[in-house]
Amino acid sequence: MASILYIATSNPGKLRDFAAADTVHIPIAPLRGIKEILAPLEDEPTFEGNARLKAIYYSHHAPGEIVIADDSGLEVDALHGDPGVRSARYADDQHFDGPPSATTDERNNLCLLQALSKVSFQNPTARYHCVLAAARDGKILCIGDGTVEGEILSAPQGDNGFGYDPLFYLPNQHKTMAELDIQTKLRFSHRGRAFTTLLDTLLSTEPSQNQRSIT
Question: What is the set of active-site residues?
Answer without folding.
Answer: 71
